[in-house]
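FORM 7B: Structural annotation worksheet

SECTION A. Query
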Amino acid sequence: AGKGNNGGDGLVIARYLKKDALRVDVFLLGKKSELKNDAKKNLELAEKLGVNVLETEELPLLSEYDIIVDAIFGTGFRGEPG
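SECTION B. Predicted structure
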C-alpha cells in the first residue's frame, strides 16, 4: 500500500478481508506517521481489527500469498515509479 488515497483504499480492502477471518498483511511503502486524512483513519481502523501493517521500503517476496492487492499508486501519482 502507498501513503496516499490509494493506500487508504487498500487498507479498506484489508479490513473487509480481516472481517472474513482471513490472514491479512499490509506492506506499507513508507511510514505510518506519513499517512493523512482517510488513509490515516483507515490505518487506525485496520490495526484495531488486528490487520498486520508492516512499514517497508521494498516489497517482500509475495509468493506465499494467495491474493495480492496493489494499492500503491493512484490517479494523483506524478513522476517515475522506481
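SECTION C. Observations
The first strand starts at residue 25 and ends at 29. The mean pLDDT is 91.

SECTION D. Sign-off
Analyst initials: ____
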